[in-house]
Amino acid sequence: MEILKKPILTEKASLLTEKLNRYSFKVNPKANKLQIKQAIESMYNVSIESINTIVVSGKKKTRYTKAGFVSGNAPKYKKAIITLKEGETIDFYSNI
């Protein structure tokens, strides 16, 4: 089971990173906090202070086509927000 899917790199997430040393990740919906902690610590070699998880519900989407209005939902996903210990950082761009 792949636990970490990808980091979330939005304006809101980058503000959390700058001010509070917190990072956001999209994770597998079946993963628990202990599995997420082990995956992040092994991948990035950092020590984690705390983890918060959120299940983000999908937005309703509507668009107009030849057949009329088509509506549906964007998929839901699980988000993990981790707080690192003082003085530690994660560099997402070093693997490129």
TrEMBL record:
Functional summary from the UniProt entry: One of the early assembly proteins it binds 23S rRNA. One of the proteins that surrounds the polypeptide exit tunnel on the outside of the ribosome. Forms the main docking site for trigger factor binding to the ribosome.
Protein name, per record: Large ribosomal subunit protein uL23
Gene Ontology biological process terms, A to Z: translation
Superkingdom of source: Bacteria
Assembly description: Part of the 50S ribosomal subunit. Contacts protein L29, and trigger factor when it is bound to the ribosome.
An example molecular function term from Gene Ontology annotations: structural constituent of ribosome
Family annotation (InterPro entries): Nucleotide-bd_a/b_plait_sf (IPR012677), Ribosomal_uL23-like (IPR013025), Ribosomal_uL23/eL15/eS24_sf (IPR012678)
